[in-house]
Every structure is written in C-alpha cells, then in structure tokens.
Amino acid sequence: MFNMTKIRATNGSGKSFYANHLCSNDYYSEHEKVQGYWRGELADAFGLRDKVVTSEEFSLFQRNVNPKTLGRLTQKNMPGGPRFFDFQVAAPKSVSVMSMFDERLIEAHRESVRIAMAELERLAAVRVRDGENVRTNNYATTGKLVYAEFMHDTSRAFDPQLHTHNVVCNVTQAGDGRYKALETLEMCRAIRYAGKVYHNEMAARCRELGYETVETRDRKGNVIWYDLACVPADVMERFSKRRQQIEKAEAEFIAAHGRKPTLSENNYLSTSTRTDKMLTSTSEKVREFQMGQLGHREEAQLYAAAKRAKEHGSSSVPLDCERIIEQVRNVIGELYERESVLKLDKILAEVLNRNLGRIKLQELKKAVKEIPELRNLGGNEANPYYAPQFVIERELSAIGLVDQQRNVFDAIAPEFQAFPGDRSREAQAMLIHGLLSSKDRFNLFRGVAGAGKTSTLQEFCKGLRSGGVTDIYLVAPTNSATDVLKQEGFEQSQTVAGFLLSKQKPLAGAYVIIDESGLNSLREGVEILRLARKNNYRVLFVGDARQHTAVESGDFFRLLEDYSQIQKFSLTDIHRQQNEEYRRGIFECAMGQHEQAFERFDKQHFIHEGKQKYLEEAAGKYMEYTEQGQYLNRAILVAPTHEECDKLTDAVREKLKEMEVIRGAGRETEVFRSWNKPKAWLKDASNFQPGMTIGFIRNMKGVGNAGEVTRIEAVDGKQLVLANGKRIFAKGASDFIDVGELRKIELCEGDLIQFRVNLKAKKIYNGTLAHVSADPGKVEILYSDGRPRELIDMPENYAAFDYGWVTTSHKSQGRTAENVVVAAESLDRKAFYVALSRGRKEMSLHCPDKEHLKRNLAKRTGERTSIHDLIRDREIPSGAILPLSEPVRKQKAETLPDFSYKDIVKRTKAALRKVKAMLNDAAAIRRMRKHRERLFNEYTRFEAEEPAVGLIGKVMGKITDLFRKAEVVPEPTDATARERVQDAEQEQERETARLLKRKTLWKVFEEAWREYVEKRKAYHALHGGGEVFELTDREKTFHQEQLSHRSREESPEPLPFWMENWRETAENEARKSRAVLVKRLAEEKRQKLDKCWALAEKQWDELISSRKKFYEERHMKSEFRLWPEEEAFVQAQAERRADGLEPEAIPVELQNWQERAEDEVRRLIEEQKRELLAKWKDAALRWENYLAERQAYQDEFYSGRKYELSSEEQQFVQQQELRRKHELKPEIPEWLDNWREKADALRQREYEAEAQWKWKWKNFDKVWRVYRSGRKKLSTSESAYQRLVEQRRSAHKLPPEYQQLPEWMRTEEVLEIYRRQHTVEEIRNALGIHPGDEDQPINPVRKTYYESRKAELAERIAEYDRNVILEKLPEWMKERNPGKELKEKIRNGIYLKYRCHVEDEKSLSSMDWLELQNRKLKAKAEYETYEYRLLIPPATQKQIAELEEFVEAAYLDSYPDDLNREEAENLLRELREEEKRQALEKERRLHPVKKWTHRTLEALHQAGRLKKLPEGICEREARELINAITEHDPANEFEKGLIRRAICDGFLPYSVEKRLGNLTQGEYRELLAQAQNVRKGAVIERAHREQEHLRQGSRDRGGMDR
Length: 1602
Fold this sequence. Notes:
Blueprint: E1 2-7, H1 15-22, E2 37-39, H2 55-62, E3 84-90, H3 93-98, H4 104-121, E4 125-127, E5 139-141, E6 147-154, E7 160-169, E8 172-173, E9 179-180, H5 185-189, H6 191-208, E10 213-217, E11 223-228, H7 233-238, H8 241-257, H9 263-272, H10 283-292, H11 296-312, H12 321-335, E12 342-343, H13 344-354, H14 361-369, E13 374-378, E14 385-388, H15 389-404, H16 426-437, E15 442-447, H17 453-466, E16 472-476, H18 479-487, E17 493-495, H19 496-501, E18 511-514, H20 522-535, E19 538-543, H21 556-563, E20 567-571, H22 580-590, H23 594-603, E21 607-609, H24 614-625, E22 635-638, H25 642-658, E23 663-674, H26 679-683, E24 693-696, E25 709-716, E26 719-722, E27 727-729, H27 730-733, E28 737-749, E29 752-755, E30 769-772, E31 778-782, E32 788-793, E33 801-803, E34 806-807, H28 809-812, E35 817-823, H29 829-836, E36 839-847, H30 850-859, H31 867-872, H32 886-893, H33 901-917, H34 922-943, H35 951-963, H36 974-1023, H37 1033-1047, H38 1057-1060, H39 1062-1113, H40 1124-1138, H41 1148-1151, H42 1154-1197, H43 1207-1221, H44 1235-1268, ...
Helix pairs in contact: 4-6, 6-13, 12-13, 12-14, 15-20, 15-21, 16-17, 22-23, 24-25, 36-39, 44-46, 46-47, 47-48, 48-49, 50-51, 52-53, 54-55
C-alpha cells in the first residue's frame, strides 16, 4: 500500500532525520546502515542518478541548496514548509514473510516500487503564478522528481515488513529551466492508482516466480490487495503487531474524542506509537527473533513453499487485448453510473484492482484509448479527464432542448392575482405571476428550504386552472413523497419512474410539475425534456440545487440553473423557521454562506460539542423535545452515516425503555441492510462471493418476493446459485436484487421501524414508518406526519426494514417537524443545509469536535462535477464537448424535428406578409401556393408520428426498403426557376435593407452610450470622492447584453429609462464615492491615533518593566503595586482613549522614579523584619500549645506513656530551624491545627484492627472446637499444633488461614466453616460493616450504621446458610440408608427449600398465611415421596447390566446412579420399545416389499379385502398381512401337491392326507413349516452320522488319514 507523509525537517540540517530514520533499518543497529540511492528524472540534472545517498547531499536539499552549484536551489525558501515528501510503499504481509525464505521477492518488490514511482513522477507539477494565473491554484506538469530510495525489511515491532521510503525532495524543474517548489496535488490524488500499479506489478512478478496469489477482499466483496497462498493467515496475524499497535491507538483516540482521526492525526498516531530505536540489535538477532516466532512445522512449510516456487517457475498468463477492453468496459459502466467525469487514474486503478497481476500497464493505457464510447476531454496531459459519450450528449441535449424552447407558447394567465389581500405573500404572488406570464415550454422554480413551495404550488395550480389548463400533473422522486403530495391536495401525483415508464401518458397540452427536481439524475431529466417536447407538455422544474442530488450521475437541476437560458424564478423568503436567528442561519445556508451560518448557530448555542458523549447528549435533547417520548412527532433525529444512526438509535431506545415508551420483552429479528452497490456491479456475477446475502427489491417470479432475503451458495459462471435452490443470471436479476448483510435487532412494543422496499399491495413504500404493536405479527402504519394510518399484518419473511428512530439527511429531505436534532461527526454542505432546515421551532446540532466539523464543512461541498463545470473552471478546453455526431443526429431526428416552434411562427408570419403584398398578383398567388406546398412537405410530413415497431418490424422494414421504388420527383421548369431567382433577389434586397437599418441603429446606440458615459465621468470627477470612475453592475450588464446582441447580428435593445435619467444614477454613485472618501479619511485618522497610542503604551510598559526589574533585583518579597499617581495616570489615559483623544506624555515625576523607589525599598525591608520576628514568636507559641495538647490526648487515651514526636514532626522541627537561620517566614502546616482528626483516625484504625483480630480468633476457636468434637484425647502432633497456635495468639498475630492448616486438620467440616466465615466476611464488606461496629466507642456513626444494616446482614447470612443446605440436599437424599440425624437434616432442608420457616405466623396476613400452608403441604408431600422411595429397593444387577447394554448400543447416554427397581423397570420398558422401533425401521429400510408381494397386496386391495395399501412396511410385515387376510382361503392344487410330496418323503404323517380336501391357507403354512423343520432335523442328523463314520474309519486305520 502507498501513503505519503510531509517531512518538514526544520531542526538542524536534516542529518538527524537521514541518520535516524532512513539509513538505519527498523531494528536500528548502530553499525548496520541501509544504503539509499538517488532516483528520478531530475537526479540527472544534479549528477546524482543511481548514486548512493549521503548525509551531506541530503542536508543540502533540506537547506534549499543546490548540491551541484552550492547556490540557492529554489527562488523562495519557506521556513515552515515541508522539505521532503515521504512516499512509503509496503509489501503485503505474506510477501514480507516469504522474503525471509526467498530473496527474489525483495528484488521484485524493489522493481515494482520503481515502476509505481515512475507513474507518480509523471504527475509532478509546479504552481503557475504569472499572467492570468496570478492568485490561482493552477499548475503545470513537469514530470521531474529527485528522490532518495531507502528499503527496509522490518517494522518497529520486529515483524518482517518489506517497505520502501521514497523521500521526494521539494523541488522540480519548470519549463523555463528554473528550479521551483514541487506541487504534489495530483500525486496525492493518484496515490491509490500508484498503489494499485505496485500491487499489479508485484502480483505479476510473484506469479512469474512460481507463487500462487489469492485476492484479499473486505466484507463487502471489494478487492483490497492480494496475498501469497502459501502463507497461513495465523502467521500473517502473528507478524502484524505494528498494525495492532496503531489500531489500538486509533481506538483510544475515538474513545477520547468521539470521532475518527483525520489523515494528519493518523500520521501522528502512527509516529507516536513507535518504540525507541534499538542500537544494539543486529540483523542476525532480529532474524533469529522472527524465526523463533514460527513453529518447526510452519518454518518447514514455508521453506518447502519457496523451494516449490523456484522449481515450478512462472505461472503468469496476462490478459489479451480483447479481455482488457472487456474489463475496462465493465469498470466504466460501474464508475460512471454515479459520476459524470473521472480522471484517468481512477479508471486505471479500478481495472488494475480487479485484475491484479493479469494486466500489463502499458497495454491497459492503450486499451482505454481504443474504446470509442469513452472520450478524452483533455486537461492534465499526464492524467486527463474522461467521460462517456452518452454523458456528453445528455448534457448538450439538456441545455439545447431547453434553449430551443423559449417563446414558443402564449402566456397562460398573466391577469391572475395570487394571494389577493395578503401582503406577507407578495414574493410568492410575483413568482406565480411570472410563471403564468412565461411563454417558454420549460421553467425553473428554485425554492429554498422552508420558503413555502407547497403553498406556492397550490396557488399556482389555481392560476393554471383559471387559464384553462385542466390537466396538471405533479411528479415526485419517491412514492412516499407522492403520498405527501396527495395529502396536500395534489391528486394526480406519481413518481418520476412511473411517469417515464407508464404507457398512459398525460394528454397533449398538460402542465407537468417536477417536484424536488434536484433529485433527478441527468438521464431522467433528459428523458423528461424529450417526452415534454414530443407530447407538447409544459414543464416546471421545482427544487433547490444546494440540497441533496440524485444517486445516479449528473446534477440535472444545477446544470439547467447554471448553464442554460431557462427562465429562473426564485423564492428565498423563509417562513418555516419561527426563531429569527435560526431562520437567518438557514437563509445563509441557502445562499451558500455555510461558514457564516455555522458561526451564527454556534453563537446562538444551537451547536453543542460533546466529545465521546455527543450521541448520548443528542438522545437526551430528543427526549426533551418529545417530552420524554410522549409526543414523538414533535422532533426528527438525523445522523449522516449508518454507524452513527445505529449508535444514536441504541442511545434513544435505552431512554425510551426507561420511560416505558418501548415496552415488553424484546424479540430478536434479522433485518437486511443494503451495501448500495451500483447496478453495473450487480450485473457482473464475478463480483459475488459464496456466503453473500442478497435481498429482493421487487417480486421475482418463482425466485423470491420483495423484501425477502437469501444467501448465495455458489457462483457458477454468470449464474448465482441461491440457498433456496434457485439459479439466477446476475445480469438479468440486477433490477430485482440488492446485495448487503443481515444484522440482528431487538423489537419491542412501541418500536418505530422504517420499510426499505416497496410493497404496493399493502401501500408500503421505501421510507414508510410503522409502530410495532403488542401483537408480534402486526404493525401500525403511519402517515408522513406521524399520524396512525392502519394496523396491518407484518409481511411474511419481509426483512427489508430497520429502526426508524433516526433518519439520514437524504431521507429527511422533504420532511418537517417542530424540532430537529442532528448528531454528526462531520457533514458536507448539502447535508448540513438539509438536516438543519427540517425544524420549525428549534434545532440542536451535536458533534464531538466543533472545529473538525467546521473544517469538513469548508472542504466538502457535496457537489459532483459536470463537464460544463470543468469548462467553466478552465480545467479542460471549451472545445472538449464536440457537437453530436451525424449518425446520432439522424437517430434523434427520427423522434424529434430539427427545428423549433419559434421558427415555424416566424416563417408563417413572413408568408402572411408576402400574401398581403402580392394579393392582386396572379403570379404571386401561384408562387404562394407552391411555397405553402413546400412548407407542408417540409414540416408537416416530419411532424407525423411514426408508429412504434419492434425489432423484427424494423429489420423487415429495412429489407423492404431495398425493393421499394424511388419516388419520382418532377424536374423543375424554367418558369419555376425564374420564380425562385426572383424570390432570391427580393430576399437579398430585404436582407440588405435590414443590415443597413441595423448598422444605423448601432451607430445611434454607440453615440448615445459614449455621451452617457462621458456625462457620468464628468459628474463623478466634479462631485465624486476622487476614486477611479467605474460603471455600475446594471450598466455593465446592459452593455454586455448589447454586445451579445451585436455578436449575434441582432438589433440593439431600446435605451432604458435610466440612461435618460442619468443624473439620478450619477448622484447616487457620487454620494457613495464621497461616503467611501469619508470612511477612508476616518480610517487614516484612526490608524494614526492607534500608532500614537501604541507608542504611548510601549513607553509606559517599558517604565513599569524597569520598575518591576528594580524590585526583583532587590529580592523584594512583597507584591509589586502601582503608586496612586501611576494608577491615576493610567485611568486618565484610558478615559482619553475612550474619548478618541491623543495620549498625554508621562509626567516627569513618574519618569524620575529611582529615588522614590529606593526610599520605599528601605522602608519595606524594615517592615518585613519586624513582621518576620512577630511571626516567629507566634509560631513558637503555637508549637508549645500543640505539644501540650498532644500530651493531654496521650494521657486521656494512652495513660502511662509519654508522647513521642513522629518522624514527620521531627522533620518539621529541623526545617523550622533552617528557615529561621536563613531568615525565612515560619511554615505552619495544616496538621498543626487538624491533628485531632488524624489522631482519632489512627485510634479508629487501631480499634478496628483489634476488633478484626478478636473476630478472627473467635472464628478459629469455633473451628478448633468442631475439629476436637468426637476426640477424647489429642495426639502428639495435635497438642504441638495447639501450643503453636497459642503462641501466635500470645504474639498478637492473626490465626492461620485454611491453606496454612496441617493436612490432618483439613476435614470437610473445617472447610465448610472456613467457607462460611469467608462468605460472612464478604457480606460484611459489601455492606460496609467492620468488626467491632456493634460496640463502637470512638465513632458513633459507625455504630448507628451497623444498627441500620444489622437486619440485612442477618438476612444475607441466613440466605447463604439456606443455599448451602439446598446444595447439599440432593447428596443427602441419595443415601439409601440414612440415619435419624441425616433424615432430620433432609426434612429441615426440604421445609427450608419451600421457605416454611417463619418466626411469627400470627403477624402474617390471611393471604400470606394461606400461602405458607400451601408451601408446607408441598414440603410434606415431597418428604413423604422421599420416604416412599427409601422403601423401594434399588435396581437389581440384571437391570443395571441391561441398562449398560443400552448405553453401549447408544440408545441411552447415561442414567441416574440412584435408580430404584421400579424406575429402572420403567426406563427399560421404554428402551425396549425404542429398540424394537429402530429394528423395525432398519428392517423396513433393508428389506422393502418385493414386487410380487406388492402385486398380491394390490390384488387384495382391488378385491376389497384390503381397505388401503400400506406404505413403508417391510417384506415380513407384508407377508404377515397377506397371511392374516388369506388365513381361511382354500389352498390351491400346487400347495396341496407340496404337502403330498412332504408326506411321501416322510416329513409329515400320512394322517395329514385326509385333511387335503378342505385344506386352508393357514393350515397349509403350518404344515409346510412343520415339514421344513423335520427336513432340517434330518439333514443335521445325516451330517452327524457321516462325521461319526469318518471318525470311526480313522480309528480303524490307526489314526492315519488316507
């Protein structure tokens, strides 16, 4: 990354900066220097190119000395100005880490830095201050720098950090060869471009070296830089300690100041957090330290990665020319969506950022020039302005369409009287009269905020209707704004988008009013102009260019106001603000005087500085305006950023919760917040990443509804794979989706929310407010003024909403309330004007830093630059905007004719004059008829509207045109030719006459103007104040207009009345001139008087200073005071100055003050000696009294001991002796008078320590008694320990703590006592109760406090004991054979659990007594249940074993240890059922129903024997079902044959054969199973006999096998 720091290097000669910061690496070894090299085109001029930097040369540049000639380097030498500019370039952290293992990366970094610096060097410039550039900021590009290059490899925190300091000298060479100071403005503006050049080159070189790079993106998907894929993220984080230090410092700055640091403050934080340089470390030690932070495995991985890169070689494949052009087109589509013009570096930087390492810089620059739709507007040759062709054509079209449509209509209703009888609305009435009298198609109405635009438009509409205009349409930027217009009576209102896209347009002749036109983009404005001309509308644009503009590119309203000839009407009288100073401040904002408005608001205490608490103070002011949240519609809360909105919302909601305006338990809800990406960004699928959240801004059929959100699972080419299983093309879905993030908010009853996406079916629009109701599924929709509208169901799955307590300044435009509260760290001028003008009564602006806010207000205008702005400011040549190309003109001519209605009127009048002149001439009549035919063919044919056709129709039309015969045009005859020649001759004669007449008129005007100017000059010379004669603004304007008429070859305007009454103007100007003369003379007199007074004050100050010095030299200890004569002289001088008189000279007696001062000094010395002696006597007496009082106190409370001086008192006695010896005043310390308080405090501490000691030993005695209980005789070790404890008690030491007890004494009972003692001590400390407070003899306040807290102390201790018992109760109840004592403990514990212990039941109320009885019954029932469980024996070993089997089979995680037999059996029963269920599910999954079985079930179902076909059963269940149904069905012959075969084989008895006649299916299955069992038995028996036979044969052969 790139950044720049200004280096003044004013101390010394610059050698220290060179030695300490540049030639030393960041581990700063004293003996290891870093060599720097001189670079830059200007280095050749000094003979320094590629030479090593030395401190001598560096020092010469710092002192503005030419190192070659040793003369002055630049003409001017600014002492406090910067001498160097340090452009620092840091490599990505992964590259810095890998450079420890691969030195090739260091060389790649060095070469990449030089390429980036070469791009910056092309922008080096020098300020131009001659000719017309005097006192301007204009500059000329030189492209020459000289800079020192120093490369370091370590940060101040010893992290590997590869970075280069390019220290640029503040000098360049102008075109005339002279050396001048460097202008770095363009270099700083393009610093991001230089950083991307570096990243691009470095990424390409890393790939060439064999490394794989990965893009690093922020949470919004923007590419930041790249990293090497082989370096783990945790390693990079481990080596980023320096970045963490700076971030910590930034966080502390924000916590202290309530705002983010500026760029200069960031640089200061960066330098202030640097550690001192270590002069003892070496590169080997630092590298060893760095490697020591890596694990062995990590180090091996990084070594292996470097080795693989060297073996693998280059993997870089740059983009070809076509792909580069495609990438440039993608970028300019996104950038120019919100900007009209951009400099080349912005385009190049963004293209590089998206293709790091894949684009060659020179090929990219060439590709930009080859894009025809991107125009080079000129400007700085090294960094020109670029704009798309469509922006140029839109600006030209906007201005041209307006200028061509002047004086094309008649006035509508010039006689209409607006606001009759209301003198307060005269300005509005005059404006309405002007609009109704206008003959132009387009008019512009600029109304400042609060000027009454709405009432003016209402009255204007009345005037339109009185003039016969019935179709009046109002167009607003948003749906919410149209709702407001409809509430104010404008029924025919719609949005701009609806007006342009609607198929049903207003009828011809309609009057269209575009409200808040400042929010219209250039594209929308041009479309409105074209539509109005095509459909013959008249349009009024209403707005304020100083308020917010459209998000889309182009400030249409300001373009018309500043650069077109549109007729402008303004309304500047503000009526909204009721406070005079508030109204004046808003008026100053409307006039562009924002700094003056800021000062006014600050003086009137409208602006409040709150540091880190400014948001909390803003919330408090909002609560004050709304009367603690009771009347929420009385104030608007405004904050400029989402971050400030969120923090301010939290602060307001906390206060509203306290006042219970927001009620109930909150429920957490996820809402969607947009990232406000351009539409061109959304069209490119490569910008999306898996995991991003998208929201639907309108219904997308089959994919999602407006307000819903989903996540992106994957990006497949140009398609996005969504979490709901749908696939969408990014380009086609860009009109339906938005990208952002989900955040969780808490919603409570009474919360205010704001919708972000339109739901027209429910009349919910972007900006609609609603209250959360008590029903979680319903919200109450509000009108724009805060009134409730209706209660509706909250849209299902709708997430496009947020809190509505705070709004941004953009959304507040158009809203009004009684008061407005603004909280902002910084504001631009537009946001300042809009936000502060929303209130009627009061305004309150809260900020962390007033000066910071004021500085940002001066710098940030909020306006976007247009092409016409650049021409006006001479940034680009006036010829940069060329006329529209011929193909474009032909395309536009298909829709609009190339002439105006004004031309038609002129030509028609000329034709009528010809008719009247030639009415009796037959030839003339014939010529007239032919002329009319030509007019018809020329104009009417073009006016015919061409029917709309589709793409296929247009293609077919072009094809049929190829086969269409050309129209036969009759050739002109000789008579027609003669007529045309005669017409041309007559027209030439008339034109000559008009020229002569115009020349005559201009001669008359010039003579009259010359005479007028001479008269004015003569009168001014005779009666003026002696100043140079100048024309007034009115005279200059008139003369300039006349010259404009002359340049257009038009006749001059008639002479105005004020030229005839020239004397009146001359007298007024002469009077002004004389007033200026009087003012100048008065000013000269005042300046002379000020000089006299300055001299007098200087003399007086010198006199008094000499007197003071006289006193100080004599070491006078008394305060210096003026003598009475001096005070009288000072008073007299002040009165003379107030009266405007000259000062008097200092009297002689005051000037000769030395002798009087000597006498005064001698007198003061004697008085001081007497005063010092008295003070020492008094001090000795006070010391004696102090000692006596201390001894009396000692006798009272410590009888038998003599009082001894403390170390402090002994030191005081020694100091007093020294002070008396040196004749200083005695010192009287405070403790000399306040010793009793200190003594009482000491006695109190001693008492408390003694009480603490007794309390501790009392507790230890209790522990010892508990331990000894049950022991009749102590052992030897116990007796020895008892003697040791008594020795501690005798020595007045504290008893041992639990950790100090011997092992044999640390029983459970002892531990429990210690725990209770520790808890009691914590409770006493929390309540502020000390041991011994119950019998406090010294401080009765402590005893009173103890009495007030005694009950609470006992209650807390009892609560602890109860909790201890309840904790032990489950363990006690697990005992299967409890004794009587344990059962009693359990019974008391259960009753204690239900709080059944009440000291005095009689004092309870009836309801409390009943509640107590219920608790006792519950406790009794639980104890009886416990006793019943004791009667049931525990679980058997068989049950336990079966449970263990279930645990091993994962049917059960665990089971209680204390299960009884009954509980174990119930649990086993459930587990067996679960085992059966899972076995059945497994069988159904592994053995589904076979096909033939399923066919059998279907046959039974069709036969009506099975009601419903079963689903999801297994083969066994299906067979069992079939068997159950066919149990009594007769067996078939095949089945009977199987039974007969089994009888014959001997597997069934012969008696079965008798039953074959009536054999059923059930009997058949039983017999078949019986036969199979017998067959299996026979097989087993036969196999057994064979084995026996084999064994027998083996024995017969002597055990040998065959």
